[in-house]
Model the fold of this input.
Amino acid sequence: MDPLSDVLALLRPRSYMFRGFDAGGTWSIAFPRSRGIKCFAIVSGECWLAVDGVDGEISLSAGDCFLLPRGLPFRLANDLALAPVSAASLFSEAERGGVVILAGGGDCCGVGGHIALTGDHSDILLSVLPPVVHIRRDADKVALRWSVERMMEELRDPQPGGVVMAQHLASMLLVQALRLHLARTGSGSVGWLSALGDRQVSVAIKAIHEAPDQAWTLPILAGKAGMSRSIFALRFKKTVGVTPMEYLTRWRMLLAADKLAHSSQTVSAVGASLGYASESAFCNAFKRVMGCTPRRYERRRPVTPERDDTDLGDLALAYG
Done:
């Protein structure tokens, strides 16, 4: 797989709640802080988005899509001067996966899903994303339109298997939005995701992901990138934020943590699968990166987030 697919697979994303909204009238709705990534799209009409801690309001129109990767509190409204109502009061009676009609609807319609990350280390993805990813270019909207329209069909006219279909569509929206954000990221951005847009650095990252067990060295990775060792080291640190060897070790430890939590492999076998000649060397690296020994970590069991119908910041997208 490619590096973005590798990370998403490791984080085990799944959409476990999604709803649509069709509203008329004047409104303002406040959503609380939440966990995971929310993915939203406007099908028709216009509204405003205001995110706590983010300067300025964002104008949204038909075809726009946005992600809220960090779960910050936010408001959606067609008049931000209005005192907002809570999302809980609006959606408390809504059915899972349905479309809520407010004041007769007809003015603005949209769909949103909550992407729960069931992996243990979501920060590897979320920390490199801005609080809001707004997709608004006409060419980009075309890439998202089919998924959005198909999801609205599933919500408006439930069919057998519709829940699974909508979950897959929400995951598609997430990947598409991340791809578009990556394509539009400026050259001054720093972070793992932004580095995938650097042709030479991304070659080295891909090589690490394809064979994490290999005995990678700085000269070998620089050769993969077609650069001198010194220039590659500076370029990698500038774009990714860590050195190539630090990235290699962190990625190996994230893979090790996933194996310890979700497989029956022994500590020694996990270390060997990631290129460590001795168990002690692997244990030392694991403790340095993860903060505990592999044996202590393997006693943990992954916890699947429970569905919480009261956390309506995770549940729905509201428009009006």
Remarks:
- The longest helix spans residues 162-184.
- The first strand starts at residue 13 and ends at 23.
